[in-house]
Design a protein that fits this description.
Largest interface: A-B, 63 and 63 residues
Helix content of chain A: 25-40%
Order of helices and strands of chain A: HEHEHEHEHEEHEE
Distance between the termini of chain A: 21 Å
Oligomer: homodimer
Largest sheet of chain A: 6 strands, parallel
């Protein structure tokens, strides 16, 4: 098993835009949990607040371990400006962008060797998201319509070359013992 | 760009268990669209029916092309038995299964060279899903809680080695023209 320190060294935060509390509650929770499980260090729910979501994510982090920041209500523009001011780059996941499979976009992103803010939108994102003023890279996980959740998972899996799927999360109260058949969760001594 | 014939030659159908119409409407739509976009040939919504979901998926397939079967209401046990009777294998995606990154489970699945029924569950799946009687393989896309949508996307991306992300979907009315910055959709002549 690989340690958690190496993949997470590349700082990566996921910004979720366009969340509507009732309609998107499960989907946004899945996006945030995907961010955590695949090695992002934090999550920003932009422009709106959702206390229930915050509680859900906090509970998962408490039980399953690891450090995962959660921020909400920050206007997206402010989050982007602040990220760039600190030397980070912005990657917008969208079906309209450069295809991660047929283009060299992923290697160009990696070559930057900078912290990455990944913007995950919803159906109708502001046109500005596609512009250079906001996104350094527009990346498509295939150019077919599917899901922001799937796009984020595949982007992170490929960015980290799969290494984050075996991370140990520090301070976990429980861990799954992988099995061919059956279910096993072990409680960790603290 | 690769053609659609080669990756789809490995027949793959996704079975979604545990859908509740109101609670899961967006999530299950995302799972179905992920199945389609990442190269599965069809989708089974087991045990329940959801006409709205069927309409959503049909509309996407009509506009964006390709053949993608949609079936609903079939009891999961019947779908599994019928799949196996035709010589297929069953892969259950679950956080409790063998880790796709640290184990050799993916190569063992590929070595079978058989049609694959991928079961995508929800929070509390029947215990039988983990047993040999139902699932030939239990596969974890990492052993942390996240999302059935993310699990499916990464499983398909890895199974098809990324090749399905550049498929051309036959009979599409429109196609995205991938761009570094901006949005472009072209209408296809029919």
């Amino acid at each position: 098993m690989k340690s958690s320190s190496s993949p997470r060294a590349a700082k990566m935060v996921v910004l979720r835009w366009g969340h509507r509390e009732e309609r998107d509650k499960r989907l946004t929770a899945h996006v945030a949990l995907t961010a955590r499980a695949f090695g992002a260090s934090g999550f920003i729910l932009s422009d709106v607040k959702d206390e229930k979501l915050e509680t859900t994510i906090a509970k998962i982090s408490k039980n399953w371990g690891g450090k995962f920041s959660f921020e909400m209500g920050t206007p997206w523009k402010q989050a982007v400006e602040s990220w760039r001011a600190k030397g980070g780059i912005v990657v917008h996941l969208t079906a309209y962008g450069e295809n991660i499979q047929s283009s060299d976009v992923l290697s160009r992103i990696k070559a930057e060797k900078k912290p990455v803010l990944v913007i995950v939108g919803s159906q109708k994102v502001p046109a500005a998201f596609f512009s250079k003023a906001v996104s350094d890279f527009n990346v498509a996980i295939g150019n077919q319509p599917h899901s922001e959740c799937s796009s984020l998972a595949v982007f992170l899996d490929r960015f980290f070359s799969g290494s984050t799927l075996t991370m140990q999360f520090e301070g976990a109260k429980m861990r799954i013992l992988p099995m061919q058949h059956g279910k096993k969760v072990v409680s960790m001594k603290t």
